[in-house]
Each structure stands twice: as structure tokens, then as C-alpha cells.
Specification:
This protein is of the alpha/beta class. The protein has one domain. The chain contains 13 helices and eight strands. Strands 4-3-8-7-5-6 form a six-stranded parallel beta sheet, with helices on both faces. Strands 1-2 form a two-stranded antiparallel sheet. Strand 1 and strand 2 form a beta hairpin. The longest helix is centred in the last third of the chain and has 21 residues. It is globular and about 55 Å long. The N and C termini lie far apart (54 Å).
């Protein structure tokens, strides 16, 4: 497979702070290039990646370990339009988006058969289907699969399973908070150069969850489509409203300084 010319992320790319959490101002292309460097260039070392959205900010405010996991991440990208809006409100600048699904799809398209991926997450059987579909559609190598329904007592066993698989990329889809803490806590055991907390991406790859329509993704409002049509996601609406209130309150505080 022909590889694109490298587009290294500028060392001067700024890292902003949103409610004690970092945000790297990087484009999707810069993100893909940086992750490609981590996966295929020496030295090979594990790096954690977080795709930041409003729910992570709201949930993390009552979970100190969650905050630390995000703060220690090697790369934090803007996943949704809510983060873009918050940066505009609080910093007066535009933050490009690099959503989790686009990152995963982009890496698979770029690296194809070179790429060894471990699928960790979702209900039993879903990761297997996601792996089969990804191998068929992108030609990637499947390093391993494991469902996401295990408790903390099994963390080491699962981390060692991943570490023994020799993956370039670990997709960890166990829900916000759990996946970031797991990747950060066990990063040295997991060993993969890129450890990505990917939320529902495994379900989308498996076909058990529907990707939002292209027009909603272009506008950055896919979360409205998901929350509005999926009753299982209705609990997310209060968190989004809380996020808006947090940003507005912070903007008022900044104006008084």
C-alpha cells in the first residue's frame, strides 16, 4: 500500500486547558501522522490518546483518577463540536476536530496490512465482528480481540493478553472514564505504541451501532442525532446541558478578571 507523505505535527502546536483537562490543537491529518510515527518509528513506546468530548469533561469533574488519566495522555484531540464551541467561547479561537471514528478509519486506510490492531471492548462477540469487518474492509491484521465486560480484578490478565499480542494499535471501547483509566494505568503492560480510548467505535465497526449521517458529522452535530434517536443515550442530554452551563459560567468568570 502506498503511504502518504508524512505530515509531522508541529512541535509548537499549542496545548490548551479546558476545566483542568488538556486539549491539543491538532488537525485530523496531523493526528494521523503523529500516531503513524509512534506506531512505526523507533523508539517503540506506549502512548495514550484521548478524544475529548463534553461528557468526559462533565464526568471527570467528580472522578480525580479520570482527570489524572486525561492529564497524563500523550495526545488529546477535540472529538465533537461541543469542544470546538467551548474553545471558541473561552479562547476565541478555532480548534480543529479529530474524532475517534475518523482517527481509527484514517489509520486503517493509511496503513492497511502493515497495521496490527487489538480490539478490546463492547459486548461479547462484538469485538470479533468488528475485527472481521476491519480486516475485510481495510486489510489490517487482527492482533487479538476481547470483550469489555470484565471488572478491575481482571485488568492485569487482560492487559497481559494485549501486551503479548504485539499490536501497533489498541482500540479500547469500554466507556468514558473506564477506558482512559485502564489505558493509562496499564500502559507499560499493554505495550502497544498507540492506546486509543475509542468509545463506541468498535460497535460501529461491527455494525451493531449506526454511524451518524455524513451531514451531521460534517456539521459536528452527530451527538444531537444520536441522543435524539437512541433512547439508551437520552441520559447524555443532561450532561450536555451541564457542559454548556460550565462553559458559560467560566466565560463569565474570565470576563470579570
Amino acid at each position: 500500500m502506498t503511504q502518504p507523505d508524512p505530515m509531522p505535527m508541529s512541535p509548537a502546536a499549542p496545548r490548551l486547558t479546558l476545566f483542568d483537562l488538556p486539549l491539543d490543537v491538532v488537525t485530523l491529518e496531523q493526528t494521523l501522522s503523529r500516531l503513524g510515527e509512534w506506531m512505526f518509528q523507533a523508539p517503540r513506546a506506549p502512548h495514550t490518546v484521548v478524544t475529548l468530548n463534553p461528557e468526559i469533561i462533565v464526568q471527570s469533574r467528580t472522578q480525580p483518577e479520570f482527570v489524572r488519566a486525561v492529564q497524563q495522555a500523550d495526545l488529546v484531540t477535540a472529538d465533537g463540536v461541543g469542544i470546538v464551541w467551548a474553545v471558541r467561547q473561552l479562547y476565541g479561537q478555532t480548534a480543529p476536530r479529530a474524532p475517534g471514528y475518523d482517527i481509527v478509519k484514517g489509520l486503517m486506510e493509511r496503513h492497511g496490512a502493515q497495521l496490527r490492531v487489538f480490539f478490546l471492548g463492547a459486548q461479547p462477540g462484538v469485538a470479533e465482528q468488528a475485527a472481521q469487518n476491519a480486516a475485510r474492509d481495510y486489510g489490517i491484521q487482527v492482533a487479538g480481540v476481547h470483550h469489555g465486560y470484565f471488572d478491575a480484578a481482571e485488568d492485569r490478565r487482560v492487559a497481559e493478553l494485549v501486551g503479548a499480542a504485539g499490536a501497533h494499535l489498541l482500540l479500547t471501547g469500554m466507556g468514558a472514564g473506564r477506558q482512559e483509566r485502564f489505558n493509562q494505568t496499564w500502559r507499560q503492560v499493554l505495550g502497544a505504541p498507540v492506546l486509543l480510548g475509542c468509545g463506541g467505535v468498535i460497535d460501529v465497526l461491527a455494525g451493531t451501532a449506526e454511524l451518524a449521517p455524513a451531514w451531521t458529522r460534517r456539521l459536528g452535530v452527530e451527538f444531537i442525532w444520536r441522543v435524539g434517536l437512541d433512547r439508551k443515550r437520552w441520559h447524555r442530554a443532561p450532561r450536555l446541558a451541564q457542559f454548556v452551563r460550565l462553559v458559560q459560567a467560566e466565560k463569565r468568570r474570565n470576563a470579570r478578571r
